């Protein structure tokens, strides 16, 4: 699976691409963009540019050309993985062969002049809860004696989210209204959320299709992951606390979910799979249908993740974003991406190209690695002190969050996701 397109020494003729923190030629993420007032088109990010793949489809594999004429990636990710490998190879050749520069350069757009769009028409969105340090920290706030419920180490916990309110990075975050039970009150009120929070997650974009009733064996589950994004599962903690029993979060989560625009493909991520960390002594082994030797040996993804906060005062003072938390997906995930996909379909649920699966909040175990403010402020009890002296328990109007992520491994070029951004606007 690792080939010449992952060679750390590969170089692109596109100015600035080789030194780009997110989009060197080893990445080639797929997305949907429009340039100026143009229609949405499929493109790849290369350095600070977007290459219009729709516009150069005649230089690309025949099998992909029809799908490259669409305004979402659904058709492209419904194709066999071999077609997307062929597309990666063709795009890599066009961007590394300087003899092609004159022909291809007219199809490059400055990313700053482009509008990103949601990459898929999302049929379904499911959010899991596989970040064990997050589940433990949140559980401790409610159940100090038993932070993790008995099912946690046996079953990948998840719930069905809301696809209609998933938006691309840059979409404003309108503070939601909802039912809230104030502390000490005997009746709820309806009002603006006072405990607005983020959740740092990875999103898995599904490739291919399985029919209703057709399960996905664990050994084949990774092939159904077409690519990844960063995902912010905005959460209204005060609404959540009142409404979540007995069926789980509802309005606390469905007012907005933000994803990064570029799909970092399974092909690009080939060098970054590592062994799944061993479970703690005394933890149960996964049941057979979730167990595969290859998945345990090389089924964990190592992505460095961070939450950057910029407040209105910081911007007025000319201060850059402050890293609220830094973590790594492999250290956080109790279940592998393949186990998530396998489990989702194990009862017969059909998954389709463009479906979105969130991992759940990916917190580390230590201070400074928490994937939500709820954890950082320990339920709002301990304010987070920012470098300019401001404090936060939860997000305030005007706060802008950027999730960032990079895959790194010795001997390979680091590749990134590009930011997943949202700025909080006052309740309407
Ligand atoms: Ca979540």
Protein traits:
single chain; 428 residues; alpha+beta; SH3 type barrels; Fumarylacetoacetate hydrolase, domain 2; 2 domains; eight-stranded mixed β-sheet; 12 helices; 19% helix; binds calcium ion
Describe the protein's architecture and organization.
With 428 residues, the chain is α+β, with helices and mostly antiparallel strands. The chain folds into two domains: 114 residues, Fumarylacetoacetase, N-terminal domain (SH3 type barrels); 301 residues, Alpha-Beta Complex (Fumarylacetoacetate hydrolase, domain 2), CATH 3.90.850.10. The strands form seven sheets. Strands 6, 7, 8, 13, 14, 16, 17 and 22 form an eight-stranded mixed sheet that branches. Strands 9, 20, 21, 25, 26 and 27 form a six-stranded mixed sheet that branches. The model has no long low-confidence stretch (mean pLDDT 97). Bound molecules: calcium ion. The site of calcium ion has 7 residues, from loops.
Briefly characterize the structure:
It contains twelve helices and 27 strands. Strands 6, 7, 8, 13, 14, 16, 17 and 22 form an eight-stranded mixed β-sheet that branches. Strands 9, 20, 21, 25, 26 and 27 form a six-stranded mixed β-sheet that branches. The protein has a five-stranded antiparallel β-sheet with strand order 4-3-2-1-5, with no helix packed on it. The longest helix is centred in the first third of the chain and has 16 residues.
Task: Describe how the helices and strands are arranged.
Blueprint: E1 30-35, E2 41-46, E3 49-52, H1 62-68, H2 74-78, H3 81-96, H4 101-104, E4 108-110, E5 114-117, E6 125-128, H5 132-142, E7 158-160, E8 166-168, E9 173-174, E10 177-180, E11 189-192, E12 196-197, E13 200-206, H6 218-221, E14 225-232, E15 235-236, H7 237-243, E16 257-259, E17 264-265, E18 273-274, H8 293-298, E19 300-301, E20 303-310, H9 312-316, E21 322-328, H10 329-332, H11 337-345, E22 356-358, H12 373-376, E23 384-385, E24 391-392, E25 400-407, E26 415-416, E27 420-425
Parallel strand pairs: 6-22, 8-16, 9-27
Antiparallel strand pairs: 1-2, 1-5, 2-3, 3-4, 6-7, 10-11, 12-15, 13-14, 13-22, 14-16, 14-17, 18-19, 20-21, 20-25, 23-24, 25-26, 25-27
The structure holds calcium ion.
Residues 127, 199, 201, 233, 358, 360-361 line the site of calcium ion.
């Amino acid at each position: 699976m690792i080939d010449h397109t992952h060679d750390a020494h590969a170089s692109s003729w596109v100015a600035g691409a080789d030194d780009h923190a997110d989009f060197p030629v080893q990445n080639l993420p797929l997305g949907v963009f429009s340039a100026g007032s143009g229609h949405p088109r499929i493109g790849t990010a290369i350095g600070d540019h977007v290459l219009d793949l729709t516009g150069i489809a005649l230089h690309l594999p025949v099998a992909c050309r029809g799908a490259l004429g669409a305004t979402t990636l659904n058709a492209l990710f419904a194709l066999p993985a071999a077609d997307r490998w062929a597309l990666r190879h063709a795009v890599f050749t066009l961007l590394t062969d300087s003899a092609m520069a004159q022909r291809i350069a007219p199809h490059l757009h400055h990313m700053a002049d482009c509008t990103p769009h949601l990459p898929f028409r999302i049929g379904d969105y499911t959010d899991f809860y596989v970040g064990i340090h997050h589940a433990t920290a949140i559980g401790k706030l409610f159940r100090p004696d038993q932070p993790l419920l008995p099912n946690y180490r046996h079953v990948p916990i998840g719930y069905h989210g809301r696809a209609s309110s998933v938006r691309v990075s840059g979409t404003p975050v309108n503070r939601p209204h909802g039912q809230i039970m104030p502390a000490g009150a005997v009746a709820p009120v309806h009002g603006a959320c006072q405990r607005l929070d983020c959740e740092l997650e990875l999103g898995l974009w599904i490739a291919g299709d399985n029919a209703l009733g057709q399960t996905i064996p664990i050994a084949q589950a990774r092939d159904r992951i077409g690519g990844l994004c960063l995902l912010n599962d905005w959460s209204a903690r005060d609404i959540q606390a009142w409404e979540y029993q007995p069926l789980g979060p509802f309005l606390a989560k469905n007012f907005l979910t933000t994803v990064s625009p570029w799909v970092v493909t399974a092909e690009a991520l080939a060098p970054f799979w590592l062994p799944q960390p061993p479970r703690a002594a005394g933890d149960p082994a996964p049941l057979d249908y979730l167990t595969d030797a290859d998945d345990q040996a090389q089924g964990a993804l190592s992505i460095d993740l961070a939450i950057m906060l910029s407040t209105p005062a910081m911007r007025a003072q000319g201060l850059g974003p402050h890293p609220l938390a830094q973590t790594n997906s492999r250290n956080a995930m109790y279940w592998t991406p393949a186990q998530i996909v396998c489990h989702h379909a194990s009862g017969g649920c059909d998954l389709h190209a463009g479906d979105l699966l969130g991992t759940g909040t990916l917190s580390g175990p230590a201070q400074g690695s928490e994937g939500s403010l709820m954890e950082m402020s320990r339920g709002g009890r301990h304010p987070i002190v920012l470098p300019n002296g401001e404090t936060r328990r939860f997000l305030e109007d005007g706060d802008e969050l950027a999730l960032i992520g990079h895959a790194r491994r010795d001997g390979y070029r680091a590749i990134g996701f590009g930011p997943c951004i949202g700025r909080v606007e006052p309740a309407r």
